[in-house]
Amino acid sequence: MAKKKFTWQFNGYDSLKISEHQMNHLKEFFEREKIEILDIGSKNINEFVSISFVIADEKFEETIKNALKPHFISED
What is the pTM of this model? Predict the structure, then answer.
């Protein structure tokens, strides 16, 4: 199974808090769409930049791209 990593970037003083909150919405979407999450997380890049990410099977790439508009998509 090929996997893709979908990433959303948040900027600003509260970027980590926003990124962590975004994970709740991501989990709800994936549950509702019955898409298995292989990994999910939030990471602080620096004081003003944080990311949320989800790793999922690449067969769901179009569904995720169209509905959630990730900022970055990469092979995982």
Answer: 0.93
Give residue 18's identity as a one-letter amino acid code: I
- Domains along the chain? 3-75 (3.30.70.260)
Q: Which residues contact 24 (CB under 8 A, 6 or more apart)?
A: none
Half-sphere exposure of 36 (CA within 13 A, CB side): 6
In sequence order, the 6+-apart residues with CB closer than 8 A to the CB of 32 are: none
Over residues 8-44, the pLDDT tens digits come to: 999 999 999 999 999 999 999 999 999 999 999 999 9
> How many other β-carbons are positioned within 10 Å of the β-carbon of residue 73?
14
Type of residue found at 38 = L
